[in-house]
Amino acid sequence: MRQRPDTAALLRAARQALLDEVVPQLSSRAKYAALMVASAMATAGRDLDSGPAPAGEELALFRALYG
Questions:
Q1: Were both Cys, which of 21, 48, 57, 60 would link to 8 (CB 3.0–4.6 Å)?
Q2: For position 26, what pLDDT does the model report?
Q3: Residue 22's closest CA among 10, 7, 37?
Q4: What is the largest CA-CA distance in the chain?
Q5: CA dist., res. 15 & res. 31, Å (int)
Q6: Is the distance from CB of 40 to CB of 15 less than 8 angstroms?
Q7: What is the rounded CA–CA span in Å between residue 63 and residue 34?
């Protein structure tokens, strides 16, 4: 049975396609916008890869600070 790619893998593939296939065809202004989208996709991918642990750690720090 074929496995479906996970969300993070799909996001990485879409970002790479954007950078490799779309960005080179764009004007300067559109290229800037596409690169911002690619950057946001990379950030979202890192969040997906890291899972819920960092958010839980951050919440614990806030609870310790504010009670």
A1: 48
A2: 97
A3: 37
A4: 53
A5: 14
A6: no
A7: 38
